[in-house]
Amino acid sequence: MNEWMYWLGVLTVAAPAFVTLVLGVVLLVGVRPSEVFTHRLLQCGVTAGLLAAAGVFVLMLAGGDRDVSVNLGDWVYLPGSEPYHFELKFEFDRLSVPFAVLTLVLVGTVGAFARKYMHRESGYHRFFMLFALFATGMTAAAVSGTVETLFTGWELVGLSSVLLVGFFHERPAPVRNGFWVWVVYRGSDAALMLAAILTHRVVHEGDFHKLLGTGVWPYEVTGVSAWDATLIGGLLLFAAAGKSALLPFCGWLPRAMEGPTPSSAVFYGALSVHLGAFLLLRISPLFEKSATLAGAALALGLGTAAFAAVVGRVQSDIKSVLSFASLTQVGVIVAEIGLIGLTAGRVPDGWGAALWYVPIVHLIGHACLRTLQFVRAPSLLLDYKAVENAIGVMPPRTMSALPAGFRLRLYQFSLDRGHLDAILSECVARPFVVVFRFFDRLEGKWADWLNGRPNGATAPPADEGQAGRRVASPPPSPSPGELTEAPR
Fold first, then answer.
1. What is the mean pLDDT of residues 327-332?
2. At 398, is the pLDDT very low, low, confident or very high (cuts 50, 70, 90)?
3. What is the pLDDT of residue 462?
4. 14 plus 148 within the same structural domain
5. From CA 392, how far away is CA 432, in angstroms rounded?
6. Residues 329, 368: contact at Cβ < 8 Å?
7. What is the C-alpha separation between 210 and 87, in angstroms, rounded?
8. DSSP H/E element including 85
9. 421 and 343 belong to one structural domain
10. Which of 415, 244, 421, 419 is nearest to 329 (CA)?
11. 176 to each of 28, 164, 246, 428, how far by Cα in Å?
12. Structural contact between residues 262 and 114, judged by C-beta atoms closer than 8 angstroms
């Protein structure tokens, strides 16, 4: 690898990160830049990252390389019998380069749309700072070469997503729905962290090449046992389910539509909702090793696609309709990954590896289409209203041929979204709230004890010797006529 390729690989991630840093510092010091400056800074950073990724791709083609690693060294090293090291490494291959280019292209496109959509919004600069943070996390996750690097990008994507769901924090609904997304993401992050720990236990480091085997994607052949592949892959499948709103975590996806339309378009229509599917593509050799894991992915994908297709037909707002339409296709992509994992070893040599290009092509095409639909949605409603006014009535809708009783039960099930919100509320969100309230009360008691106050007391003691005694009320203030000079 020449020096040009090394620095271009670093610039791919560093360019959007620099935009995030500049906008964050500017907002922190209280400077209010112009909208033109903020937007141009974002566009310059995204363009620089895109050109750098394209430059790496061109150099790979010119040099005949199909796998280029950019290693930034060990950031953490803990010696011992089984030393642990946190290695920051970027991997450019036939999977990461297309996804990184897709990320930067869609972020730049939606950023141009958001320039006018967010015009004169009070949180304009905060939006673009979080938008750049999302681009940094997505790019880092796309080109990650180690599970630690993936976790870093994964966390940045989750943080920016939650903050943009609650972007209009002066209203209670966005904040409440942002908390829902945060709870589901924390479960997904915990599964990913456990998978990272198991990866270190099995192969003694977090490098994907050690876990997935030698070779380049999609021709990698893992050397881990079927049991280890099932265990690690199962945790990563759980993490992907939480991030991509697969069953049973579908309930948070329509709640995430509380954010601005540009963030909904690029997050839950195009990129963030596909990050889980991208993770499953990255660990594709594990699906070929474990039929149980591949079967679980197939069942999860088909179930999610069927659920989203049914529920999406009764939604009353266009953003929820598009979000469930996106979820339907994501479910199909996950099902394709599971099906290919089951059949890859039963097809002629060469064809099994070539089949892995089908989900990535499906992912890229669907992301582009869904982005167009989300940014077109506001004007589409106006056009639809104009059609109604022109013809004088609402356009006719086709009636279902299902029996009336079954259709009614299916309609109720779809309106309730399969009761997944209630299940998540009781089984996931409520335990978090109970635990947080317990620690909040414990913190209050600890603070009272440190301040020398008894339980339930609110007034501070007069001095150290009177801790626990009732403090006497101060005497009334004298009137102006009674003020005299105090004796010396």
1. 94
2. low
3. 46
4. yes
5. 51
6. no
7. 13
8. strand 84-92
9. no
10. 244
11. 25, 12, 21, 14
12. yes
Kindly state whether residues 228 and 270 are assigned to the same domain. Answer: yes
* pLDDT higher than threshold 60 for residue 465: no
Q: Is the N-terminal amide bond of 248 cis, ω within 30° of 0?
A: yes
Torsion of CA 189, 195, 197, 199, to 10 degrees: -150
3 state DSSP class of 246: coil
Cα–Cα distance measured from residue 367 to residue 365, given in angstroms and rounded to the nearest whole number: 6
When divided into structural domains, the chain yields a total of 2
* Three-state DSSP class for residue 403: coil
Eight-class DSSP state of 92: E
Q: Are residues 274 and 421 in the same domain?
A: no
Nearest Cα residue to 370 out of 274, 265, 245: 265
Q: Residue 67's domain spans which residues?
A: 3-385
Give exposure, 185-214, as e/b (b: 16+ Cβ within 10 Å). Answer: bebbbebbbbbbebbbebbebbbbbbbbbe
- Taking CA atoms, 259 is separated from 7, 160, 190, 194, 308, in Å, by 35, 11, 25, 30, 21
Q: How far from the centroid of its chain's Cα atoms is residue 129's Cα?
A: 16
Rounded to an integer, what distance in angstroms lies between the CA atom of residue 290 and that of residue 295?
A: 9
The whole-angstrom separation of Cα 9 and Cα 437 is: 45
pLDDT above 70: percentage of residues in the chain:
88
465 contacts: CB under 8 Å, gap ≥ 6: none
The full length of the chain comes to 488
